[in-house]
Amino acid sequence: RRTATMAPAPVPQREPQVIKHIVDDRTRAIQKPSSDMITAHQADPTEDLRRERSQASFPSRELAALMAGGEAQLKLRERIADAVRADPVFSKKGKYFMERADLYRTTLEKYLALPRLATAIDPNDPITVGKIIRELIDEPGGLDLHLGMFIPTIQGQGDEEQRKHWLPMCTKLQIVGTYAQTELGHGTYIRGLETTATYDAEKEQFIIHSPTLTATKWWPGGMGKTSTHAVVMARLITHGRDRGPHAFVVQIRRNEDHQTMPGVTAGDIGPKMGYNAVDNGFLRFDHVRVPRRAMLMRYSKVDPDGTFHPPPVAKASYGTMVFVRSDIVMNAALYMKKAVTIAMRYNLVRRQSNPGGEKASGGVGQKGLELQVIDYQHSQRSLFPILARAFAFHCTSDFMRRMYFRYEKVSTRKGDFSALPELHATSSGLKAYCSWATKDAIELCRLCCGGHGFMMLAGFGTTFGNYAPNATYEGDNNVLCLQTARYLLKVARAVAKAAARGGNVPPEEGAQGTSAYILEGGGGLEPGCQLGKSVGLRDTEAALGAFAHAARRQILAAASRVGTLSADAAMSRDMVAWIKAAKAHCAYVVLLNFVDAVAESKPRVSSATAAVMDRLVSLHALATMDDNMGDFLEDGHVSADQAAAIRAEVAVLLAELRPDAAALVDSFALDDYFLNSALGSHDGDVYRRLYDEVQSAPFNASHVPPGYADLLHSRLIKGAGRSRL
To answer: What mean pLDDT, rounded, does the chain reach?
Structure first.
């Protein structure tokens, strides 16, 4: 006999009782001395930040203008930020409390309104303005790959006729595209992709097909819901021969009703650790036919009869990939700036323990007030090197931008692809090095903000969640380091060959540009590091020499161990060492660009600004050495005494930079709209912002929690009226 389940008794529906709280004069009088005791030793965070700015040793506006590319560019960015903030469509209010569907929709609304606002701000150059607006929105959305990959791929790999056909529709958003390369079973190893494009000469069509489950395209942004078209990377098969991965423009959804095209299966892959305004998707093809001209044919070509014409240079089509990796290097600087600005401002206004105690600099705090967190040496040692590295990455991103556009100009106009190997190696290595460092810096900045840093309102959660994929997409970082290492192996072998024959290394064999330093020494036979010996500890040439030595030693040692093995075998045999050597090479390239950029800019700034930039260069160099001292001590290039002196000099630099902490993050000129952080706002009013923001949180709309009627009411009602001692 089965017993029927009894339903819970219904909760009586009645208006909640409102009990008016009255505080009488006697109660206020009793409490007042206690309140006065507390407020007498309470600091105003906005005053703290104002005081910090007033004690700076240099004009932050001057450095901000330098980094923006001039005062006019800085004013343009400020004008754009004002316009974005004033437009209701671009409001970020309540963003941290949104469900995924709302976040997707509001982000899409912003992107669709972007052209209108950009044209209104500057009808003569809406593209430049649009890029800045997109940066300020700071939320990747369904149109991200349309703008960042679909259009650039057609621009870079489509021939003139294809560009004229597709690009007007792209720019007018008559079609929305994505870039479908990664598959369930393959990511970084592009040659292993399983999607095929088999040519049918009789019908002059390609058959796009997913022959296996692992051939399913997986991860492309915008594919889940937004896109109507995709650049599909598929293995080109002509006359029965595999010609390798090529790009095809394929319609995946109908423009009329957004349903999938016949033979196409597509959808969203679900929530991720972050990046949830982006509809990352999956895509499968079941014998889908597309015309011959769907293949992008700027470099490789297929004739109507199926004759295949390879590109003039085997890696000519790498241009788009290199552009995206270069762009990631540029973004690394931006997001490191964002994280350290939030953390630095909060550490400047947050007070913790030790009232009136001794600061790391040797001074003492204000009587009766707890110390500002930034006055603890550990906070400085955590944040100031990130601050310096953000400046270093800014300079490196400028170098990467110039390097890419110089190559693009020469390869397009003259058909000269000779700079591609170095560009590919440099962009691969720096993409890995900078994205790793930025990802780690965001988390360290969060940790430096204590419990409040864990709140979404702090801004670190979405910043980390949206930035962290940079370490994986567009090439796994370890694999990219190995691509840089292959280039370094080639250079090392060219150097060894030249030394054996007593000649110079031919330019086409490397050892130029960023790798020229490999020619300059002889491994362990080099003189030791001169920092703190014949020159001061802040000598940039000696620091560069130490970084070059550490990289060169690791490269030449790894090359010696693998002998005459093929590049593939060499990487496999000594993979960990080659990844480490690539990182050391990138560390040298970053420092080199930082040193060069500061030297070049000094004539354009005041002596005070030049002095603080010099301190940043020195801190970046010495703190990086201190953090990786084993690389410099291993062969005795740096002595134990020098290592101790370097560590001590880092502490001196921290104290020297302490008065400029607020002004230095101000010089990044990051608008509050972009930061979207209760902890990192320009005025420092962190506690008021935190309190005000949570008052309007949807979860606070009612005191009755979800499930109250079924789960809590029957228990809590038994305790009503019993809370008396």
So the answer is: 91
